[in-house]
Each structure stands twice: as structure tokens, then as C-alpha cells.
Amino acid sequence: MTEVFAASVAKGDEAVIELDALVIGAGVSGLYQLYKLRELGMKVRAYDAASGVGGTWYWNRYPGARFDSQVEVYQYWFSEELYRSWKPTERFPGQPETEQWLNFVADKLNLKKDIQFNTKIASAVFNEKTQRWLVTTDKGEKIDTQFIIACTGMLSAPLTNRFPGQATFKGQIHHTGRWPKEGVDLKGKRVAVIGIGATGIQVIQTIASQVESLKVFVRTPQYVIPMQNPKYSVDEWNKFSDNFQALKERVRNTFAGFDYDFDSPPWAEITTEQRRAVLERHWAGGSLSLWVGSTPELFFNPEVNEEVSEFVREKMRARLRNDPKLCDLLIPKASDYGFGTHRVPLENRYLEVYLQPNVEAVDCRKTPIECIVPEGVKTSDGKVHEVDVIIMAVGFDASTGALTRIDIRGRGGRSLKNEWDEEVRTAMGLQIHGYPNLFTTGTPLSPSAALCNMTTCLQQMVDWISDCIQYSRKNGKKVIEATKEFQDDWVKHHDEVANATLVVKTDSWYMGSNVNGKPRRLLSYAGGVNTYRKQCDELAEKGYMGFEMQ
Q1: Mapping DSSP to helix (H, G, I), strand (E, B) and coil, where does residue 128 land?
Q2: 28 within domain boundaries
Q3: How far is the C-alpha of 69 from the C-alpha of 238, rounded, in Å?
Q4: CB atoms inside a 10 Å sphere around CB 5
Q5: Cα angle vertex 493, ends 490, 494, to 5°?
């Protein structure tokens, strides 16, 4: 038993564990949050449903899972020694290496002793008399805690039950976000992949050469960028390490938290040839810089967006050998949506997969999936696509789902799920009015909900939350709550920024439109990581204005 559990006290007939703070999740933000609060001398423990650390990088172990942020910036920035100690092998590491890295971090900082694995948080109820939270786990354990910090992840609530009849399928069916730890043998199997978002693309390009046949069920075509993923030697990593302080400062001051930022002159001020050169340069870079490092006008100006979109379409058509059927099915049209208004995947010869004789693309716009039957997937034309394995790359209840799947009750018994079912509102993604002492990361209306290099944004939020808690403790305050007025002002500002972009015109998980009945609002703050950080810093400098302390 650790010191934390030695603090259990009897309340009624059951033991209740008493904490200063409880962290939900042991991924990138949860590990750092646990470290920060422990450094403040707080009695803190983290809980995670997984059997180990990693969060996203624990659960998403499907074939081909890997970064789309360069490893030199997908890092912790609080310790240069930690940065130097880990030696990545490539620019965009795969899931196994990333999981190893997060275990390395947890072991280096001796964090695992304060993490309880294989445990889900079932409910959290705020007690207005004690001004503390009573948390219950799926094992029936009770925890009395002053603070809850939800580090539950942006894409951690998979949409597993998507089609009628899934339980009748006689083969194997797996969601990419809950891929079995022991793996799945796909060699020589007839496989269906449902969904071609970023995850589906990684799966498809990885397994196509292994399976007997592959049926890809395509609904929404994607603009894609070929990934350039060179190997990194130890000497190359040491060069990044020598540039640690500059990289740290750089990612904090760019639009999306990367080491690149919009670098094009105003589009109208450069020639057609110069524009093409900008696009070619970013395309050749093989990262997300074409999206969040070329011109910001692609997010606001329909004409600029169409020019960039057509550039990408041209590249994609050439790779598909201008096959009319494949181009029609796999390349977005201007009438669908524009480049960058939807998640942009990086890929490795994904399009070429469809030229293989063992691969068939099924057009779900013409013949939607009707149900799953024992033999496979049945489409609306009555055809049954017989397969041995179904891989569900159908996405998540993004940003909100991980919290609404916990029964969270704030002041007056108000339910966070019920409130967010009506309208998604937060105070900068840091707190929700009506839920005192509950802090959140990776949640709606902050950049970390989608439009950010996640390690940059999550660490910034953890730092702010930790400093806020430290400030309250130094000033003898026990309760911190975002005011209604502040939250209302932030929601208004968020919407004004969002509505100036083309992103809100596109149906995607960014807008919550992949979940039936989910209120429509851009989940991520679109004002930029640098702008958001400065706004957070200003609030802190003004005594955490907008966050009432008692």
C-alpha cells in the first residue's frame, strides 16, 4: 500500500481514500499532470482503464499506427535531460516505439507507483457542503478529493457499436481504438476496413500486402499528403537535443504548436509561379506544414482554399493513374469540402493500394452499409460482402465523449452529459462553470481539442492548471470555479473566431457531426496556439481573472 492509500478513512461502512487531487488518465497529459502536482507536494493519484501508461498510444496499437507530428517536437519540454535521454529511431515513430517512450518517461520519473491501472472512473459527484468531489470507480472504490484533473484525451471514446447486427458476425470484428494487445493475425484473410480517415488510411496501407483480399468501405474521400519519414541516427538526435531551448520556444509561438508556421506572403501579392513554389516546397516536406504552415488564407478565403485543394487533387490524380472511377471515389471534389477544413492525414503509398488486384473500394455514398450479417457487410444494394475480419476505423466521440461517459455531477446535481448533450460549453477548455475544482485538458474550445501538436497544447494546459492550483493554495483558497460570465464570453469569442473560417462549413468530427445528435460547434479553438497561450498567461497575471476562488 502506498502513502496515498494509507490515507484511507472509514466513512460509514466503507473505506474512502482521501486525496488532494485525482488525475483521470495516464497518457501524455496525465503523466505530466501527475508529475506536476506531485512536485507541488500534493497527495495525488492517477487512474487509467488501461493496464499500462500511454493513453492514445496504449489503445491505438492497430497496424500502421504512428505519429503525424515530427518526433523532435512531439516531446516533453520541462526537462532537457529527459529529451536528450530518449533516442527516437525515425521522424514519425510507430505506436510500439511511442508506447516505449511514454513508459520510459513514467519510469524515469517514478510515476507508476502513483497510478492505478485497470480502473475506470464511473462517477464524480461534487459535495457542496464539503466543497470536495466524491469519485467512484468501476470496482466500487470511493475517493474523496479536492481536485479532479481530467486528462481523458481527445480521441479516446471509440464509436464501437455503429451498425446493426455487429454481434451476429461470425468472424472477428475490431475497432482500431481498442485493438487487441496480443495483435490480430490478418495474413491470408479476407478483410474489410470501414472508414478512410487518418486511422483507416494507416491500416489500409499497412495490411494490403498481407491479406488475401481487402474491401475498403469508402464514404468521405480525403485529401492526403505523402509522409517523408527518414530514420534518425543518434548523432542526428543529438543535434535536435542541442537545439532544445530554441525548439521549446518555437513550438510555443506558432499557430499549431509545431516548429513551422505560416510562411507565405499574402497570396494576392505573389505570382502564380511563386504560389506553386510555396505549395511544392511544403508538399515535398512530407509533414503537415502544407496544412498549418503554408498560408493561413486557406482557412478563410474560398478562392485560396480552392487553389490549394486543386493542387492536392492534381497530385492525387497522378498517383491514381487518372483512373476515373478511383479518382471519383477517393479524391474530394470542390462540392465536398476544401483542403484543410477536415483532418488532413499523412500517408505512405496509401493511394497506390487501390491499384492492387486484391483491393476493392466500395462506394458507400451510392450503396451505404445497411448492417452487419454473419457472413460480412451488407450494403443497401442487397450485396453481402463476405469477409473473415472487419476492422472498424469509424472514429470517436471526439473531445467530449471521454467525459460524458463518466457520470459527472456538479453544483445542484447538474449533469455534464446532459448539459453537453444540449450545448458544448467550456471556459477555455480548462474548466466548466458549475463544476468547481474540476479541471480539464484536451477538451472542447481549446486548441488541444484538434488543431494542435498535442504535446505542445497539453503541456501548456497542465502547466496553467498546476500554477492555478498552486496559486489558490498559497492564498488559502479551496475552491476554483470558472464564472458563468467568463465562460459565456469565451464561448462567444470562440464562435466568432470559428465562424470566420471555412472549417465550420464542413461536416467532420471537428464539428461533432460524426455523432448523431451531437450539438454542432467547432470543438477546437481556431485562434492559434500562440494566441491561446498568451490569453491564458494574461489571466494568470491578473490573478486568474474569470476563475472565482473561495
Answers
A1: coil
A2: yes
A3: 19
A4: 14
A5: 85
pLDDT in tens, the chain (550 residues): 344 444 555 555 579 999 999 999 999 999 999 999 999 999 999 999 999 999 999 999 999 999 999 999 999 999 999 999 999 999 999 999 999 999 999 999 999 999 999 999 999 999 999 999 999 999 999 999 999 999 999 999 999 999 999 999 999 999 999 999 999 999 999 999 999 999 999 999 999 999 999 999 999 999 999 999 999 999 999 999 999 999 999 999 999 999 999 999 999 999 999 999 999 999 999 999 999 999 999 999 999 999 999 999 999 999 999 999 999 999 999 999 999 999 999 999 999 999 999 999 999 999 999 999 999 999 999 999 999 999 999 999 999 999 999 999 999 999 999 999 999 999 999 999 999 999 999 999 999 999 999 999 999 999 999 999 999 999 999 999 999 999 999 999 999 999 999 999 999 999 999 999 999 999 999 999 999 999 999 999 999 999 999 9
Report the predicted TM-score, pTM, of the whole model to 2 decimal places: 0.96
Domain that holds residue 451: 3-157+397-549
β-pairing verdict for 369-373 and 376-379:
antiparallel
* Dist CA 238 CA 84 (whole Å): 7
State how far the Cα of 326 lies from the Cα of 329, in Å rounded to an integer. 5
Q: What is the CATH number of the domain that holds 127?
A: 3.50.50.60
- For residue 275, what is the enclosing H or E element? helix 272-285
* CA–CA–CA angle 268, 270, 272 (5° rounding): 95
Q: How far apart are CA 248 and CA 261, in angstroms?
A: 14
Contact by Cβ (8 Å): 447, 21: no
115 within some domain: yes
Overall size of the chain counted in residues: 550
CA distances from 417 to 102, 278, 414 (A): 31, 45, 9
First-to-last alpha carbon distance for the chain, in angstroms, is 34
Q: Strand pairing of 9-11 and 14-24?
A: antiparallel
Is 259 within a domain?
Answer: no
> For the chain, what is the domain count?
1
- Kindly give the interhelix angle for 28-39 and 454-474, rounded to the nearest 10 degrees: 30
Contact yes or no for 287/346 (Cβ under 8 A): yes
* Distance from C-alpha of 123 to C-alpha of 135, rounded to nearest angstrom: 6
d(CA 97, CA 122): 31
Domain membership of residue 333 (yes or no) is: no
CA distance linking residue 227 with residue 109, whole number of Å: 33
Closest CA to 21 of 153, 156, 150: 150
Greatest extent of the chain over all pairs of C-alpha atoms, in Å: 77
